Each structure stands twice: as structure tokens, then as C-alpha cells.
Amino acid sequence: MTSGPVWAENDQPLKENWAPSEWGADDKVGAVNRTTPTMVLSAAKLVKQGKVATLGKVYQQDMPLYGSRGWRMTIPGLPTYSPIGEQEAVANDEYLAAEIGQVGTQFDGPGHFGVLTSKGHFFYNGRYLEDDDITGYGMGSLGVEHVARVGFVCRGVLLDAVTYRGGRLPIPISQSMDDPGIITAKDVETMIRKQGIDPIREGDCLFLYTGHGDIWHPSMWDTYNAAEKQKRIAEFNAGGPGFGLSACEYLVSRKIILWGGDTAATEAVGRDWGGENAQPFECHIKMMTRSGIWNLENLDLSQLVADKTYEFLFAWSPLKIKGGTGSPGNPIAIY
Amino acid sequence: MTSGPVWAENDQPLKENWAPSEWGADDKVGAVNRTTPTMVLSAAKLVKQGKVATLGKVYQQDMPLYGSRGWRMTIPGLPTYSPIGEQEAVANDEYLAAEIGQVGTQFDGPGHFGVLTSKGHFFYNGRYLEDDDITGYGMGSLGVEHVARVGFVCRGVLLDAVTYRGGRLPIPISQSMDDPGIITAKDVETMIRKQGIDPIREGDCLFLYTGHGDIWHPSMWDTYNAAEKQKRIAEFNAGGPGFGLSACEYLVSRKIILWGGDTAATEAVGRDWGGENAQPFECHIKMMTRSGIWNLENLDLSQLVADKTYEFLFAWSPLKIKGGTGSPGNPIAIY
Amino acid sequence: MTSGPVWAENDQPLKENWAPSEWGADDKVGAVNRTTPTMVLSAAKLVKQGKVATLGKVYQQDMPLYGSRGWRMTIPGLPTYSPIGEQEAVANDEYLAAEIGQVGTQFDGPGHFGVLTSKGHFFYNGRYLEDDDITGYGMGSLGVEHVARVGFVCRGVLLDAVTYRGGRLPIPISQSMDDPGIITAKDVETMIRKQGIDPIREGDCLFLYTGHGDIWHPSMWDTYNAAEKQKRIAEFNAGGPGFGLSACEYLVSRKIILWGGDTAATEAVGRDWGGENAQPFECHIKMMTRSGIWNLENLDLSQLVADKTYEFLFAWSPLKIKGGTGSPGNPIAIY
Amino acid sequence: MTSGPVWAENDQPLKENWAPSEWGADDKVGAVNRTTPTMVLSAAKLVKQGKVATLGKVYQQDMPLYGSRGWRMTIPGLPTYSPIGEQEAVANDEYLAAEIGQVGTQFDGPGHFGVLTSKGHFFYNGRYLEDDDITGYGMGSLGVEHVARVGFVCRGVLLDAVTYRGGRLPIPISQSMDDPGIITAKDVETMIRKQGIDPIREGDCLFLYTGHGDIWHPSMWDTYNAAEKQKRIAEFNAGGPGFGLSACEYLVSRKIILWGGDTAATEAVGRDWGGENAQPFECHIKMMTRSGIWNLENLDLSQLVADKTYEFLFAWSPLKIKGGTGSPGNPIAIY
Fold it and tell me: Does C70 contact B at CB distance below 8 Å?
């Protein structure tokens, strides 16, 4: 027999007073609170060529999926509805079963990531999974619909780490700041300078291109056969380059409102981490659970990279999924 | 025993040569082809106050749903993932089963609506459900991912029929142009003039506010009890005011690229239609199957209406759901 | 901020040493361990007329469902598979999303019911939801597949409480032994005697007919219109007559291996319970969590009742759903 | 543009008058009509040792699945229901999305298999997919619930082809009667004689053990690692030994009521079939579409084989899934 539930002694969120957040105990949306009309007007001025990029990847059954998540879609009937009226109109629906907010291009909302403490499962702004409004049918006050009512309209900033590093970043094998798969605070500043764009400022939405996402290639995926797909899924899921802790602390200090990239986590996830000093998903905790800066993963940044477009108007909102932990997405960049 | 499959004799799409479309036999996206950089730049100039509205409704199990469509969401585990690492990070997913592209705020793509003919089930640009690439697992060339690669960035135009008619429009009871639930071509022109906005032009995205969508109220829905919700669902689903055929023909002639509104069909759907002259969903056929102008239904237009904002930058793309008939959405209006 | 997780102080399972069970700490199946070849041979002798009854109800979307459980089925494609071979064979599948083990005729396995204690969520034989093998993807050692490997072949005994009480039993309004919706230990003994069958003995499978299940009538359901179905669902779900605590204690003492009936809980569930002395689902706890006697609910007993068949060979096993909490079923009675 | 729907010219079902069936034009259940009380009494007499075998395989996400069928199960909440009452009772459900009737141990009912003809998609007893009662939400008159109301109680007969052939049967590479993966009519008769059991007679349920099912081993599956499972799934799905056409014609002539086995099709499915003479799934058509003898696939016959039990009381019914094409199962053998 077990000796009973073992609660964490890691009370960092409690000791450090992560709650209430700077937007008050009732806040349900986090850093997107920072957006002002002035920021929106400023971002709209980035539209200069009249070009549009859609940043979502294609959702399909054989895409890379984390753990046992799934995506199954069928068309009932084909046609779903029998002919009606004189014109004999017919119509189709699609029926989907999926971890809808956590597959493919995916947005991590307030209910996705937290930390176990001695007082329960701590989430953004001091909410706990043990709270009465949070059940197996939805995340209550942590639901993504609250953020989705606000939406993200911001200056989008693209950091092109592939150009910066001279090639696709590898999956990290250590937590050393020198690991070529890790992007540090200094790397961020250097890329900003080299790419010739204004410093990161409050209200920005920041995206990182590592090249790792090209293993699951946005446009070539369906040209691979099943075996090639399997191989690529295994490599894509083995970990991912991305922001290290120093970069995340820096981004928090710059008061951005959204981070994202072309990998499944945006932060660095090592191939062989797990040793004594491992802090898996530390950026997730610092950025999201503590600071309310949500994360938009598995983006298709290829058009922006090809166009060397590093600043743009970013316009997108998650779906208003009541009680959802996240959302699928196909964000719009205009430039 | 049946006498065998009865095929339609209504060969309108064949007789009228609805295919190939004006964008060629290979086209998979329709009217969004019309968008030019000039149009995008022009639309961006509509951002004057720095305000943002999110136009999607909340997705939840007890929202109004058509026919036997469904929305079921659960949270596996709560937390879904056990604590990992020193910080004991935990995380949640949501698992959804739903007609994902045809519930709530919903986009009708090329695979949603067609017409039965003697040669098979005819869809946009002469594709047939009988084609080899279209199966019970996805719509092949009719899939919504093709449109979603392009996206909609356009001048959004809102027609406020509630102000125009002096109150919520009723569900039509006839197909008469005089039925107060039907919006005609002339009504469209009058509203444009009275609202003081530029005429409808090529590349516009046009949205109709009828008030019918307030039966399923965007912000008050969860204040109703179960019985009140049931009653409102019945009324919401009983039909809906909207564009009549003359308006749709007019909109096609104006070369808009998207139509939508606060009802489940955008076009008028009568309470007691079905008689000899009934042409159910005729606008769906004319706008979508014939003309490739897709439809975005069940929008929350309340903020735009309250702000009397009739022109805005509309920025949104459906999800790239491989083989999907449509998409959920939470579009962005910036003004 | 919450004051942290509140754990139960009701440590009945710990104080009363409900674990290990009488079949050892490793046991995963409970009372079905009692079945011997002699019992099976004896049960087979009850087959005298060569008649068969199937005891499951029809699974369909508009059946009564508890809470937010669901049942959605679609046919992908219709046909799902395109013609193959010279004979142009075609085939269909059905795609289902449902709380598969807890809808309609449903079997409660070891992972379905437990009690919160100071040491965690206590389940049969001292397993806890906090155990490592139990996750949001399956019940591990509590999974129904372990019981399903054994199966139930037993003397089926039917108690006809409708004949005994002179009509359909009402939903109880109190916990009084005199409430006409409650069946007591004495009632059980009296029914056995009046129905002229042998006393309940070790290894029996015992079923109770209350008439409440006829609100969701096994054969007439689809003759009702939607409004009638809604009304009946509300009444069916409002509670149910059934065994009271004395009956359950008696059945445990008689060492039966399965209990079931024509209601959603088999035990009495009151219409207005919840007061100071309420012990909701006390029989569930005593029979299942403590004693490993599983429960088969929402049976169609109508043919057995019509035939006045009170003893029969019962042959059925749950599905081997790895990690499932329960199972759907359509048990066989032979007599 | 396609030249329109191409209908089959193979009108075998029409030319041969496969409908109405011998049980009349209204019949929805097929050969199970043959069961008589005498047969049931006779079958019950086969219970001699008091032993029970459960014949279903374990349903789990990583089992072999045909095509794009799936099995996804999650536990909402864990516990799904918060503590209620003084005893703080808690409970769990499982939520499943699956091709429920066509995965794992699976029963093919009347709506599963048919043939394309010039008059539409022909199914058992002259029903067509084009019939009004058959939609993307259910198979109407072809639904499995009709068979499930009757159920299968019969003499179970096990043919042990592994002992007969001296080892696991290979996947056929030809349609030659001499291919070691094919069981002929003569093989059936020889096995019956060698195994020392009574000739096949009307009302029997006949099961074939080929050893192919042990690639997906009933008890060892979870001892394999992921790579080993992948390899075995590929081999299991590559085809399967089983009955050839002569055997099926013979079984029809013997008037059995159910056929099944340890493979995914029961009939032989070749590794490299598809040439000029290929008749894929010809037995499916002859046994089911024409003769109403349904098929129970992917059985776990290991206990019966180990016990050399070739005759037994078989008792099982599919689930009453309204409009389902098939059913999962865990049949009971008693001997």
C-alpha cells in the first residue's frame, strides 16, 4: 500500500509570491494586459508591402504528436447531409477527436502549465487544480477563453537563429550556455542587433526560428513516405533547440506578451537531460506560470524567413474554447 | 427493394458551366485569390484607434448546435502529466470530440457545400465527392487547408441591419422580398449609404448583424439556466434572418471574398420554408459552390456594433485542417 | 488563494482494513474469484427450455446519460472504404466518441468507485489514484481488463420487485427502511421465498427489477418523440429505487459475485437526498470498493420478467478495455 | 473534370437474386435465425468440466489496427467526479474515441460489408446504402442492434489449423488451393475428423485457429517494447491465413450461424494478391452479404487450444449499438 499522496516541498511559487499577479488576483489573461492602443497603432504601421503570411502548420493524423496525443478526423456520410430542396443541395461536416489545444501549431494558455506545491497544483495567478471550478470537463478560471477574448495584436519580431548560427540548431545535449542548441539572453540581443531591428519592447510578440521545425517540414511533409515520416517524427520529438533560462528571464524583463517558435516547446529541451541539474521546462514555468506570458508553438515561419521579414503586424487570437488549456491556430503576419 | 440510386436531374452547375472557375481548373481557394497587396495596404490604413475586437463565440458543450453535431471536451487526468523534474512541473491537455469545422463560429470551406447532379455530387470548381482523393477521412482537393494557406486580410465591412430595421430581424416566414427577415440587394446598398461607408468593392469581407445571434448571446449565455438555454437553442435553431438571393447575387457581382454574420447560415433561412418555391440554401450554392466566396458564420459582432465600427482591418485564416470541410475561428478586427 | 488541498478525514477504509482483500494484495478482480467449476456446472443445469435473452439496452445518442457523459457515433464516408477488387466490395466502419464503460448498460469495474482518505483516493484492494500506474490514460492495476479475463458465468437470480410491491417502485424520498423505493435485506429474503427459488448462495449473480428502467423503455424508446424522450430522461435521471444498505450488507454476506438491475445505480438513489444523514452511493462503496462485488447497471430484464424466469445461466464478460473503469455489455441469459 | 459517378457493372447480387433472403425481405439478422431451443439445449450439454474461457483480446491504443482506424482512451479528471457525501465517494469514467465495432476483437454485422452494383451499394437482404434510413450517423435497418437482440448461443467448434498443419500458417502468397496459408473445404472436413468431433451442423459457430493471431499475442503483447510492437503490427497487418473460397462455400452449405478466428479477416488475405484473378474478401461477400453469416475476428483462442477443447457452449451477443456496423466483444466459451 502506498504511504499516501506525496506533495511537493518545492514551494517556489508560494515563497516567491507569484500570486497575485501584477494585474490583480482576478486576472485571467496575463501579459496580454499590456497591449495599449498606441502599441496596436504602432504595430499596424509595420504593414508596408501588403504581404500576408499564415503561420500555422497543417493539422493531419500523421503529424508529429507529443506523448499519446492524437488527431483523428473523419467525414460522416460523404455527403453528411442528403440532398435537400429543389437544387438538391448537399453538405459535409468533419468529425474530429484530438487534444485540440495541444497538437500541431498550439497555444499554451493559463491552464496548461503549473507546478506542484505543498498546497496543491499551483497555476497562473495562484489558481489550483484543486479549486472547485476546475474539473475533468474544463479548466474554469484557467480556461483559455479569457485570453481569447482579448487576442494578440502586436509587433511581431522574428529571431532567425539559423542565419545567426549558420545552420539548423541541434537538439541540446547539456544545459551549458555554450551548447549550440541553446539561445541565451546575449544571443537574443545580438540577433536583434544583427537583424537590424528595434530592441525588444513592452507588448512585443517574439518568435524564434531554429530550423528544428523543418524536420517536420511545413510544405514538404506530404512528399515523404511513411517510413521517412516515422523517422522524422522520432527526431522531431527527441527534443528541441530553443531559449535557455537566461533568454527567458531577459524576455520577461522586456515585458513581451507572447513567445513562440518553430519547435514544440520554444524553450530548449535537451536530448539527454534529466541529470542532477536538470530543470525541464523551466522557461515554461518562469514565462507562463509565474509571468503570464503564453507560448505559441510549432509555427511555420518559413515565409517570413525567406522574405527576411523580422518585424510585422501579428494578429491572432486563440479559439474561445471554454475551459480549454490551449488552442490550435493559424496566425496572421502582415508586412 | 429500392430501384437503385436516384441521381439528380438538376444539372445547373453543368449547364451553366460553373467549372472551371475563373481562377483555373486547378484552383482550390476561390475568391480569396482576389486579394492584392494594394488591398492589404488599404485595409491596414483602417486602423485608426488602435482597438481590437475578437469576433469568435465561446465554444462549449451547451451552445446551439445544428442537427446532431456535437462538442465534447474533457481534461485527461487533471493533471494530464505527472510532476517532472526538480520543480515538479505539471501540465494539462484537453481532449475534444466535435464537428470541429461546423460548430459555433464556423467557416464553410470548399468541401462543405455542393449540389447533386447527374454526374455526381458537384462541388467548387467541378470537383466531385466521387473523386478518388475524397474519402471518409478527408476532402482531398476540397480541403480547407488550401484556403487556409492564403488567409483573409481585407477591409471588413459591417452591415448593421438591426439599426437599419429598428430592431432584431425575425426569422423569415416567406421568400418574399418584403419579409422583414430578408435582406435584399437594395437593403445592402441602403445600409452602406446610411452607415456612411464606401461602396462594397473587390476584395472586401462583408458581415451582417441581424440580432438573431443575440438569442445565443455572446457574453450573457452562461448567465442563463439550463431551461432558458434549451428554449433559446430551439429558437436560435428554428431558422434565421439574413441575405436573400438578390443580396447574394449583388455581393457576387461586387467581388467580395468573404461573407459572414451573426447567424448560423448568414443567408436567410425561413421558419416554415419547404413549399413549392423553396430554394433552401440557394445563397450557399451561388456564393460558395459557384463563386468560391466562403462563409463565416456565428460571429460575435457585438463590440463592433457597440462601437459603431463599420470598417476595419479584418485579419484571420481558417485552421489548416488537412481535408477539413471548414474551420473554427476567432477572427481579429482592428480599427 | 485557496488554503491548499483538503484531504478527507474519513479514513474508514484504513481504519477498517479494507485492504488487502481476502484474495490477497495482488488481486485485481474481486469476488469473481469465488467462481468454481462446480458452480459453473450447476449454473449450466439451469438451461431447461433452450431460451435465450439478451440483457443489454440499445446504445444510442438520445438515451438517458448521467451528468455530461456522451455517445456520438458517425459513419465515416458511407461507404467508409471505396470499392476494391473485381467484385467491387465496399465496407463501413462506425466511429464512436463516448464514455464507453459508463453509458447505457454499464459495468462498474475496480477503477470506477472509491473513497477519498487522508492518504489519497482509495480504491479496491488499497490501490490509490495517486499510484504511479494510474494516469489520465488508464487505470493501471485497477483496469477492467483484469476482471474481463475471468468473466462471469454464474447462476443468475432475478428479483422481481415490481410483482412484489404491486407496481413500479418510486424514486425514494428518504432513507427510511419503509420508503417504498428501498429494498431491504428482508425484502430480498421475502422475494426469494415468494418467487420459489433457492436461497442466494456463494457465486450467484443477482439482478433487481424495479420497473424504473421502463421509463427508458427497452423496446419502446424509439416510439417516443423528442419531447417525450426529454421528459423521460429527466425522470429516469432524477434518482432510482433499489437496494438499501441492509440489502447490500446482506448480499455481501451471501458472497454473491455480481449485482445489477434495471436502474442506473442498482442501489437506491433518492430524489431529495443530501441531508445530514445522507450516505449517497453507500452500497457502491460497501459492495465494490470494500468487497469487490461489481455492478452491472441499466439492464433490460423485460424478457426474463415476462417469462417469470428467476433462475438462469448467466454468461458474460466485460470488454478487456486496458485501463478502463467499466464496460458496455449485452449479457446473455440462457434458461 | 470527372465524367461522373462510375457504377459497377458487377451485378452479381442482382443476377443471382441474393435478396430477399431465405428469412424474408424484412429480415435484419441473417443466419442466427436458425437457432432453435433444441440447439441451445444441445449446446448447453457441452459444459462438462465447468471451465470458462474469455475469447476477447485486450483493447489498447497500441494494438494492431486496420487502415486509419483508431483507439484513444482517456480518463477525464482522475477522479472524474469530486468527492460527494459524508463518505467522500469519488468515481472515474473513461472517454473513448474509436472505430468501436471494427477494432480488436470485432464482429462484422449486416452494415459492414457489401458490393457495389448498378443499382447502388448492395448489402445484406437487398438493402442499399442509398436507402433513406442509412446515413452518416447510422446504418438504419442494417444496424447491428437487430442481430444483438437475438445473440449467439450455439455449439462452438474450434478448428486447430496449427496442429493440423504442424505450425503457424503463413500469409498466403497465391490463391492456389495448395497455398499453405489457405484452408480449403477438404481441410475443414479433415480437421473435424482428426480432432474427433461431430460434423459441422446447422446452427454451429465455427472458429479457426491459424496462429497468425499470436503475432499479436493475447497475453504477451505488453511484454514487447515499442519497436517490437511496430514490427509485429506490420506483419500482423500484412495479410493473414484463413478460409479460402471452397471452405466458405462449404460452411454456407452446412448452415453455420457464425464464423470467426484469430485473424483480422477469418478468410485468407494474401500478402501479394491483387493480380488478374484476385477476389479480395470474396468469403466476406459470400458468407455475409449473400448468406447473413456474420464474422467474429481477432479472437483469443489460446486457452481453448491449450485445453484441446474443440466443442463448447458459446454464449455471446454483440452490443446493441443503434446503427452500428459491428461490435467489440469478449465472448464466453463454457466447457
Answer: yes
